[in-house]
Amino acid sequence: MKAKIVVLPGDGIGPEVTTAAIEVLRAVARRHGHEFAFDEHPIGGLAIDLYGDPLPPPTLVACKNADAVLLGAVGGPRWSDPKSKTRPEQGLLALRAGLGVYANLRPVSVHPRLAALSPLKNERLAGVDILFVRELTNVLETSRLWRETVTRVAQEFPDVALEHQLVDSMAMLLLTRPSAYDVVVTENLFGDILTDEAAALAGSLGLLPSASLGDGRAGLYEPIHGSAPDIAGKDAANPLGAILSAALLLRHSLGLEAEALAIEQAVDAVIERSELTADLGGKAGTRAVTAAVLAALDASASTQEAA
Questions:
Q1: Other CB atoms within 10 Å distance of the CB of residue 77
Q2: Is residue 125 part of a domain?
Q3: Taking 80 as the threshold, does the pLDDT of residue 307 lie above it?
Q4: Contact 133, 108 (CB under 8 A)
Q5: Among candidate residues 120, 225, 122, 136, the one with its CA nearest the CA of residue 173
Q6: Is residue 21 part of a domain?
């Protein structure tokens, strides 16, 4: 398969984690006979510095012409003045609108090796495997319409049990009985808050990927963490969220399920061996964790060839 992937490294640790994801995607392409072309463009604070625009027109055009978009992170203290008319986050919002993506998928699961990092008792983490489906375009104004629409659509799927929760009670239940939920469908702002809370179940924000999708196959893929400017350039960022976002890219935009699963299994193997960054209690750097994922991919491929 041939695919064009636009890369938007963004700000802070964005360039470091997207570099890790690209290395893994290149390794998958070599191993499975694919051709992935990567085209890098600025977004966010960097784009403001270069062009005075958080989403320069050439960046948006390139994204619209791509098979998928891989994003690092945007923002940082140097662009955080609330009175400023131009902010990095505006670039991300404009990109979502330009690509027509409206559903943000955020899977959350708990690896047994990382259960001790959660503030919850381990018995409450058993079997936690939740998919958050977050709406990306209306904020607060449509809560009643949202409930009515979900109820109406649910009638078309009688085998799916539907339960409504107010966001305040859901915030509590997500910590007291997280294994009770399979899929959480939520509005934009509430979804952002709840998935950051759910990161505590998994052990770190640095672990969680996301996919923003619309009607077509092209999508926007990014880890859910921010730009973390305090550790940028220190080889300390956790690349696993970006690498797992690359797996979602392969699955949802390119239809490469086996390749996506190979990446996810490689990440699981790295976590099992505790080759982790500091946010997960380890001592490895960004590059070392990336190398460990690449080695796990190689080991898996060698095992399959031997079989």
A1: 11
A2: no
A3: no
A4: no
A5: 120
A6: yes
Please tell me whether the overall predicted TM-score, pTM, comes out greater than 0.90 for this model.
yes
| Between residues 288 and 145, the one the model is more confident about | 288
User: 306 near 294, Cβ under 8 Å?
Assistant: no
Is residue 185 assigned to a domain? no
Nearby residues of 101 by Cβ (< 8 Å), 6 or more positions away: 136, 212, 213, 214, 219, 220
| Angstrom distance (rounded) from CA 298 to CA 277 | 21
pLDDT at 177: 92
At 266, which CATH number?
3.40.718.10
Asked whether residue 123 is domain-assigned, the answer is: no
- Over the stretch 161-193, which tens digit does the pLDDT of each residue have? 999 998 999 999 999 999 999 999 998 889 999
Write the CA distances from 230 to 13, 76, 226, 258, integer angstroms: 9, 9, 11, 36
Total domains in the chain come to 1
Is residue 106 within 8 Å of 191, Cβ to Cβ?
Answer: yes
46-101 residue pLDDT tens: 999 999 999 999 999 999 999 999 999 999 999 988 788 999 999 999 999 999 99
Q: Report d(CA 219, CA 254) in Å as an integer.
A: 10
Record the tokens describing residue 302, joined without a space: 């060698």
Q: Are 243 and 211 in contact (CB under 8 A)?
A: no
Q: Which domain holds residue 252?
A: 2-118+203-306
CA dist 253 and 259 (Å) reads 12
Report whether 165 contacts 173 (CB < 8 A). Answer: yes
The residue type at 295: A
